[in-house]
Design a protein that fits this description.
single chain, globular, alpha+beta, four-stranded mixed sheet, four-stranded antiparallel sheet
């Protein structure tokens, strides 16, 4: 991230130095130009920074009495109020405003750069997920807060956060949630927490990857205005590449009123994206951290060719029977930190065999015997052979047939260790319409076979 945001810092420094140059009278050849600049700069500073016409109610935590705080025009760029939105805006500016130009050369679209562009986005999503480890990692959180003291030393919430010893910023359904935690303030410290930002990034990537249509990102333009009115548009508008109809894409839950306020005057239908139940962002119940996007998903999603006949949307990947990035022993030993364990079986006496998605490595830490339980499944010899074939660089026709047969046979036997690709079911119909064929049904198998493995 630093390499990207140092460029933002350079942009700001460039403009600051431009302003600094024009503030020095000795630099001018014409005193009239100096007078014009200083007069406009003085008035701009007064009305943009000193006049605080806007107010906001700030709370550190639920139950606090709201503090009415005044803000200026310049505070809309950086201040405690809605800071999470401002931080997210910068990231989306880098990706979807300036970053898109990476895909062009002399105004010609370079499709061969899309894979790198997609990977950059997915890697950033993984970093955003790791940032949210601050919710449960007190040591890491304090290090971040002490760094922030340099730029926001006077914020009341900062000192309350440093004094807080427990988890913070978790959803109300999490057992570690505390109502008296400084959750409101924590929300201002990261760019759109709990997936608010990364789902916007991933939905954009999904539409681009699967060539559903032309994307008009409105993520940075959420308040189109006229002199007397405003609209609240969806996050994206796409022009479908087959029907040439416009569709709005609203990312997140409980936004029906906002969507209706845009659909009525514009006539553009809006597709809501349910992010709460999207499997690409599971929070591990064992450690309360997000489970990131694995190397196989990043590679396959970024680089696979969707023009091939029979291309399907990919949702779930069964790690033990599909992943070629690790040996079987490496997988079972939890070398990959992205694998999920989800199983519910009365014969498996593990607290994490409860039907929720856990980090597999957390399960191993909790009880290493789970590895031997998996190894003792009757089809283990077939699984070993399949992983030999998966890892092999080139296969004969017979080996390929054997591999596919074993994958079909073992898929349900080892469904409990998995990961998920970037997939949004609400957009699958638009993909099918763009393909205009019968090969677009998703590879979307979430069912686990209970009580089959003893």
């Amino acid at each position: 991230m630093k390499s990207l945001f140092e460029k933002i810092e350079l942009l700001a420094e460039h403009l600051i130095l431009l302003d600094k140059t024009f503030k020095v009278k000795a630099n001018y050849s014409s005193p009239i130009d100096y007078k014009i600049y200083t007069e406009n700069e003085r008035i701009l500073k007064k009305i943009a920074s000193h006049e605080k016409l806007k107010t906001a109610n700030l709370k550190t935590k639920d139950g606090d009495k709201a503090e009415i705080t005044a803000f200026s025009f310049s505070d809309e760029v950086y201040s405690e109020n809605d800071r999470q939105m401002k931080l997210a805006d910068i990231i989306e500016y880098v990706l979807f405003s300036r970053g898109v130009y990476y895909l062009f050369q002399s105004d010609k679209f370079k499709q061969d750069r899309v894979a790198t562009f997609l990977e950059i986005n997915l890697r950033i999503v993984n970093l955003l997920m790791i940032y949210e480890s601050l919710t449960v990692d007190k040591k890491l959180r304090d290090a971040f807060l002490n760094n922030l003291k340099e730029i926001i030393p006077g914020e009341k919430g900062l000192h309350e956060m440093l004094a807080w010893e427990h988890a913070v910023g978790l959803s109300t359904g999490n057992p570690k949630y505390r109502k008296d935690a400084p959750n409101n303030y924590f929300d201002t410290l990261l760019p759109k927490t709990a997936g608010g930002l990364w789902h916007e990034i991933l939905v954009y990537c999904f539409i681009l990857k699967y060539n559903i249509g032309y994307i008009f990102p409105l993520l940075l333009t959420q308040k189109p205005i006229s002199l007397v009115h405003k609209l609240s548009p969806p996050d994206l508008i796409i022009l479908h590449n087959k029907t040439y109809r416009y569709y709005g894409i609203e990312i997140g839950n409980l936004k029906e009123r906002q969507s209706g306020g845009f659909m009525a005057p514009s006539g553009i239908p809006i597709i809501p994206i349910d992010t709460t139940n999207a499997r690409i962002s599971d929070r591990c119940p064992s450690c309360s951290k997000w489970i990131g996007i694995c190397p196989k998903v990043i590679n396959d999603f970024s680089k696979s060719d969707i023009s091939k006949p029979g291309t399907k949307l990919t949702n779930e990947i069964r790690c033990l029977t599909e992943c070629e990035h690790y040996t079987l022993d490496e997988k079972l030993n939890g070398v990959c930190k992205y694998m999920k364990f989800k199983y519910k079986n009365a014969k498996w006496k593990f607290p994490f065999a409860n039907g929720h998605h856990h980090h597999y490595h957390c399960c191993l830490t909790n009880n290493p015997l789970v590895k031997y339980k998996i190894k003792n499944i009757k089809t283990s010899n077939d699984l070993n052979r399949l992983n030999e074939l998966i890892r092999k660089k080139e296969l004969t026709d017979d080996e390929l047939s054997e591999k596919l047969g074993l994958q079909s046979k073992l898929k349900s036997k080892y469904s409990f260790i998995k990961t998920h690709s970037i997939y949004y079911s609400e957009l699958s119909m638009l993909f099918k319409m763009s393909r205009d064929d019968s090969h677009s049904e998703p590879n979307n198998e979430e069912g686990d076979v209970e009580n089959e493995n003893e």
